């Protein structure tokens, strides 16, 4: 298991083992995003509810104000059977997908390489991960 980013203290008791079908998750890598974000609470482990919601500033086709109400960790199956955990992912119940911020990953020491339409995530210590 390889973790990227700072982990949060679990509040809900949802563990890595409780997250269903991480291999089925579709994600969008958005180079303009400052943080990773998901609207799928069932995809997050180590979830922590925020005491004060954060207004969400994102280009969406809606006049409704959205908020980040928690944060947790996303789990993906990686190379050679490694589990890759991306920590510090915001949760907004109004979001309809999962957005990964390459900038946020790079700021934690991960390296990203574009290979065609795919992104290879690696770390110096672990090599290729995802």
Quick description:
With about 130 residues, the protein is mostly beta strands. The protein has one helix spanning about 100-105; strands at about 1-5, 30, 35-40, 45-55, 65-75, 85-90, 100, 110-115, 120-125, 125-130.
Q: Could you explain the architecture of this structure?
A:
The chain has a single domain (2-128), classed as Beta Barrel (Cathepsin D, subunit A, domain 1), CATH 2.40.70. It is built from 1 helix and 10 strands; from the N terminus they run βββββββαβββ. It is globular. A hairpin with a 2-residue loop joins strand 8 (111-115) and strand 9. The strands form 2 sheets. Strands 1, 2, 3, 4, 5, 6 and 7 form a 7-stranded mixed beta sheet that branches. A 3-stranded antiparallel beta sheet has the order 8-9-10. With 130 residues, it is mainly beta.
Overall geometry: globular
- Percentage of residues in DSSP E strands: 35-45%
Protein structure class: mainly beta
Q: Can you count the beta strands?
A: 10
Please give the CATH class. Mainly Beta
CATH domain fold name = Cathepsin D, subunit A, domain 1
Summarize the biggest pleated sheet. 7 strands, mixed
> What is the element string, with H for helices and E for strands?
EEEEEEEHEEE
Rg: 14 Å
InterPro entries: PolX-like_BBD
Domain Retrovirus-related Pol polyprotein from transposon TNT 1-94-like beta-barrel: 29-109
Organism: Austropuccinia psidii MF-1
Protein name: Retrovirus-related Pol polyprotein from transposon TNT 1-94-like beta-barrel domain-containing protein
